Amino acid sequence: MQLNIPKKITIGTCFDFGEHRFHFGEEIVELEDSASLLNNHEALHRKMSEDGYLFIRGFHQRKYAEKAAHWTLQNIAERGGLKPNTVVEEGIIGEKNQTFSFFRQTEVAHAKPILDVVDSQRTMQFYEEFLGGPVITFDKRWLRCMAKGGHNHFHYDSVYVGRGTQNRYTMWSALTDIGLDNGPLVICLGSDKHDRLKSTYGATDMDRDLTDAVFSSNPREMVEKFGFTLATAHFQPGDVIIFGLYMMHSSAPNQSDRYRISIDTRYQLAREEKDERFFFREDGSWLGNFYNKGVSYKPMSELRHEWELE
User: Fold this and answer.
1) Cβ of 223: how many Cβ atoms within 10 Å?
2) What does the radius of gyration of the chain's CA atoms come to, in whole angstroms?
3) Quick one: CA torsion of 295, 300, 303, 304, rounded to 10 degrees?
4) In degrees, to the nearest 5, what angle opens at C-alpha 136 toward C-alphas 231 and 281?
5) Whole-angstrom distance, CA of residue 228 vs CA of residue 190
6) Cross-strand pairs, 262
7) Using an 8 Å Cβ cutoff, are 4 and 66 in contact?
8) How far apart are the C-alpha atoms of 166 and 151, rounded to whole Å?
9) CA gap 264, 226 in Å, rounded
10) Torsion angle of alpha carbons 47, 48, 51, 53, nearest 10°?
11) Residues 89, 91, 94, 96: is their CA dihedral positive or negative?
């Protein structure tokens, strides 16, 4: 497959993460592409063990990623989210500047254009070979369409989706072109090996323990306090990042006037214990997070004080 790969990010390039500015080569680096290792699963496992992630350009065929993005934008247009009199494919954000998360709208997130990407034969075969057996994926799909200013916060996936097997992988797939100003995913290199974080924050279950799931909203402290190096890239439709339950990650704010569209999916061996919150029940719904209605969640500031992480 021939890819039109973005130019390598040069040393010294500025990256604005909200109110914080970083420079490539110092506190932030470009993700290393592992596409050349796709047919060498021993090397992929070694890379995952050493670095905690796999960044694979062109993992999904671009034409399918673009079809999924177009389908999603059509649904945003039907909900009045696009700027009037603009082309749907351009994804220009409307005046309301509304972020759309189609997590529970299965008519959108489970439509053929989406599943042709994340449930494709290519995708499932990769995980079967990587994990060594038949695999399953969550019924919940985190299809996100970030408006201007839309972003996420630093967290481990274990806190949200960590019940059952620990041998579970998140795949974040870019469906649109996502440059440094479009709110790219950012991971914290070394966070998967931070035993103190993993044994405290990483051991919580937000729904069981009624604890705040967001560890931090401050990328500066990820670098200066915890010693992590940030890593990101200019993503194109079809590019993916794959990581386990204990990779601290976030997304930077979208600074552009067009929607940033991505989808998170989770994969594990079919024979291993599931996290039942994210699989269909008899009524066709799933439980998900935040199912404890009317309760209070213990603030992260208190938890970090208890864990002596302040």
Assistant:
1) 18
2) 19
3) 180
4) 115
5) 6
6) 144, 174
7) no
8) 26
9) 26
10) 120
11) positive
Q: Taking Cα atoms as reference points, which of 35, 32, 31 lies closest to residue 58?
A: 35
Q: Which amino acid type is present at position 105?
A: Q
Tokens of 171: 């795949």
**Structure token pair of residue 227:** 């010693």
Output the pTM of the full model.
0.96
User: Which residues lie below 8 Å from residue 256, measured CB to CB, with a gap of 6+?
Assistant: 148, 179, 181, 182, 183
Q: DSSP string covering the chain, please?
A: ----PPPPPPTT-EEEETTEEEEBTTTEEEPPB-GGGTT-HHHHHHHHHHHSEEEETTSS-HHHHHHHHHHHHHHHHHTT-BPTTS-GGG-BB-TT---EE-SS-HHHHTSHHHHHHHT-HHHHHHHHHHHTS-EEE-S--EEEEE-TT----BB-THHHH-SS-S-EEEEEEE-S-B-TTB--EEEEETGGG-HHHHHTGGG--HHHHTB----BS-HHHHHHTT-PEEEE--B-TT-EEEE-TT--EEEPPB-SSB-EEEEEEEEEETTSPP-GGGS--TTS----S--STT--PBPHHHHHHHTT--
At 132, the amino acid letter reads G
Quick one: tokens of 184? 């790219």
pLDDT at 274 over 70: yes
Residue pLDDT, tens place only, 38-59: 999 999 999 999 999 999 999 9
pLDDT at 1 over 50: no
**Residues in a beta bridge with 17:** 20
Q: Model confidence at 215, in pLDDT bands (50, 70, 90)?
A: very high
**Residue 89: how many CB atoms within 10 A of its CB?**
12
